[in-house]
């Protein structure tokens, strides 16, 4: 069966420090991968999606970047965190191509607090 | 562009009360529609889905019907329980390019059920 792992679960980082959140998927190949952010009062916002290794698309310009160095690995990064980067970050995966009725499967999330 | 609008929360109900959470969408074509649930401190889980007009998704006593004419996908439950307390997200699936799809979420509706 497929599983998705996201870590760390919680993180407190000072303003200006770097960030690296990692997400890995097991039990499937060539998944679509996503990073979402859930900020207070703003719902769930799609940040990045990837349809393959090295292929990253950004939905919202911001202080963050994403990379996909391996088929089932998706990394969210920042060189210098801002206070506004605080939030709950969720990684997700779904099946690919032509499966327009497929659902997405979410990791447990990372609570990031920038202080 | 495609979007999802949910009723604002929080929604506070007594146990065994009837629940409705409104969701409407804007999209080109006929996207698949979903309801996800997020229990405290956890990631998102799929609650139910519908892939075409007039489909009814159902799970755990919750139901939602895909209404093309009103572009709606309202979530209902006849008798809520304390364990239903969570944040509920309406979402639609849209193609992000020729190879992939992504979910767009509403802002979420917090449901609190008291005994």
Detail the topology: elements first, then pairings.
The complex is a heterodimer of chains A (115) and B (115).
Chain A: E1 3-7, E2 10-13, E3 19-26, E4 32-39, E5 43-52, E6 55-58, E7 65-70, E8 73-78, E9 87-94, E10 105-106, E11 110-114
Parallel strand pairs in A: 2-11
Antiparallel strand pairs in A: 1-3, 3-8, 4-5, 4-9, 5-6, 7-8, 9-10, 9-11
Chain B: E1 3-6, E2 11-14, E3 19-21, E4 23-26, E5 33-38, E6 44-50, E7 56-59, E8 62-65, E9 75-77, E10 86-95, E11 101-105, E12 109-114
Parallel strand pairs in B: 2-12
Antiparallel strand pairs in B: 1-4, 3-9, 5-6, 5-10, 7-8, 8-9, 10-11, 10-12
What distinguishing features does this structure have?
heterodimer; A: 115 residues; mainly beta; 7-stranded mixed sheet; 4-stranded antiparallel sheet; 11 strands; B: 115 residues; 6-stranded mixed sheet
Tell me about this structure.
The complex is a heterodimer of chains A (115) and B (115). Chain A has 115 residues and is mainly beta. Chain A is 0% helix and 57% strand. Chain A contains no helices and eleven strands. Chain A has strands at residues 3-7, 10-13, 19-26, 32-39, 43-52, 55-58, 65-70, 73-78, 87-94, 105-106, 110-114. In chain A, the strands form two sheets. In chain A, strands 2, 4, 5, 6, 9, 10 and 11 form a seven-stranded mixed β-sheet that branches. In chain A, strand 5 and strand 6 form a beta hairpin. Chain B has no helices and twelve strands. The N and C termini of chain B lie far apart (41 Å). The chains are: A mainly beta (115), B mainly beta (115).
